[in-house]
Amino acid sequence: MRVLITGNLGYVGPAVVRRLRATMPNAYLHGFDSAFFAHCLTDVEALPERLLNNQSFGDIRSISPDALEGFDAVVHLAAVSNDPMGSRFSDVTQAINQDASISLAELASKSGVKNFVFASSCSVYGVADGGPRREEDPLNPITAYAASKIGTEQGLGRVEGGMTITCLRFATACGMSSRLRLDLVLNDFVAAALTSGRISVLSDGTPWRPLIDTEDMARAIEWAATRSVANGGRFLVVNAGTDSANYQVRDLAAAVAEALPGTEVSIATDAPADSRSYQVNFAKYAQLAPQHQPIMALDDSIRNLIKGLRELQFGDENFRTSSMIRLRVLQDHLEKQRLTEDLFWSRFSGKAADA
Question: Of 71, 185, 266, 287, which residue is 20 to 30 A from 225 by alpha carbon distance?
């Protein structure tokens, strides 16, 4: 089997590559990435891309049709990856997350790719009262990032041909990674507890978030990259996670504090309600992918984050201005003229090296 993985040099990519290599030892795995975050390594023992057969660098907005030839599956992770970046780069978010994603799928279909996997998001539910959201429930995106995911799903539904397309609406990502992000709620809480002994919940703690560890995201992607049309249809949108992992933010803070005794939790009980609050129903995923259900419990994710950060001798109380915050990385690239405002690599990007 030949698999192209876009955006593999990000937070989730290392887990996906590791999973596919373990379950498909003879597969040809090819990474394609713009390399915005390639240097943000938090696993210094071994480069995760060693498990690939090949790594290409390029912008998904201008990928060549030839790059899709001969692949059985495309795993599409490349994206402007969260709400703060989507807000700062709203037009680019539309161009990369939506327009380029649909074009990629069209190229893949014309090239004979059998399975196309799109990493969507449960953030499409936005503000959702009335119980856990099912796939057919109304959508309520409140960010450019979420809107781009919906637009891509809709566009993928119109792609012609016989390619099997799976849109995985992932719960909020969490867990350790070879390119760790700390701009995710659980990861932020663990980092704050380790460095300052204090977790500050900026909301009243009541918003709901479903969580999924990167290891379990990789399990879902493996299933989607290999599923048959008989299992879900040619075009499928499915919530990816597990019902037991719907948590209120205050519960996440309490779980981290329990794992790190002495941690003080401060909740802004008088704060306005966080507009992003949704529970998600994952029954369809449980039915379609019984052998690929999440196995990482909340305590497992917390324990792995603590272990990984301690091994890094992590102690930066100002981690929210570090390279583990993806928006900060892009801002640094922009300030040093490595990237243009529309997030293309600049022709001046080598200037510092020449000086």
Answer: 185
Write the pLDDT tens digit of every residue in 263-282. Answer: 999 998 877 766 678 999 99
Which pLDDT belongs to residue 274? 64
Alpha-carbon distance of 236 to 168, in angstroms, equals: 8
pLDDT on residue 128? 72
Number of domains in the chain: 1
Any idea what the CATH number is for the domain that residue 228 is in? 3.40.50.720
Question: Is residue 152 one of the residues assigned to a domain?
Answer: yes
Please state, in angstroms and rounded to a whole number, the distance separating the CA atoms of residues 32 and 64. 11
| pLDDT tens by residue, 64-100 | 999 999 999 999 999 987 666 757 788 898 999 999 9
Strand partners, 212: 173
Tell me the pLDDT band of 355, cut-offs 50, 70 and 90: very low
